[in-house]
Design brief:
This protein is α/β, with parallel strands linked by helices. The chain is built from four helices and seven strands. The protein binds adenosine-5'-diphosphate and magnesium ion.
Length: 161
């Protein structure tokens, strides 16, 4: 089911794909000694937050998944076993805000970290292990996944198995 580039015809397909990918993301996040960092690229409305909601649902989280557009960060703690951080840096006016907000100090592993608009904190934000790019295509979304580190490459290899 994994594909570097995949067409997701509606919202339910985005959720389903996030569900499928979540297992390996969580497994890897629990194994490595730093936070697993995933950049979510794409315009407003591309489905980035929907993807994070899919991952959270597959972990059994049933609460609301708010877009961190105003709060910058939403945190989900899974009984101290794993923390999921969901950033939306759209409202950053300068990259230093990453440090000023104390974000460089909070990403303690084991953690799975999704970042929307990461380039807004370029030079400060943690580098990406995987980039998931979403774009509007017809009435659905195109989803492209690119590894950005050795860890990212290993995850892709797991999905290809
Ligand atoms: N594969 C898809 N096809 C069509 N619409 C989708 C798809 N995935 C998500 N959406 C819709 O896109 C809209 C914006 O989603 P959201 O996740 O908030 O975007 P972003 O976080 O990128 O701004 C939502 O209304 C959602 O239902
Ligand atoms: Mg969003």
């Amino acid at each position: 089911m994994f594909c570097e580039e995949l067409f997701l015809s509606d919202e339910s397909k985005t959720i389903e794909y996030a569900n499928f990918l979540a297992d390996s993301l969580v497994k890897t996040a629990l194994e490595i000694s730093s936070a697993l960092v995933i950049y979510l690229d794409g315009d407003l409305g591309a489905g980035k937050t929907t993807f994070v909601r899919g991952v959270l649902r597959s972990l059994g989280y049933t609460g609301s998944v708010k877009s961190p557009t105003y709060t910058l960060l939403e945190e989900y703690d899974f009984s101290g076993r794993l923390c999921i951080y969901h950033f939306d840096l759209y409202r950053f006016t300068s990259p230093q805000e990453w440090e000023e907000a104390g974000f460089d100090e909070i990403l303690t592993p084991p953690a799975l970290c999704f970042i929307e608009w990461a380039h807004q904190a370029k030079g400060y934000v943690n580098p990406s292990d995987l980039t998931i790019a979403l774009s509007v295509h017809n009435n659905g979304r195109m989803c492209r996944i690119t590894p950005e580190s050795d860890v990212g490459k290993k995850i892709i290899a797991l999905w290809k198995k």
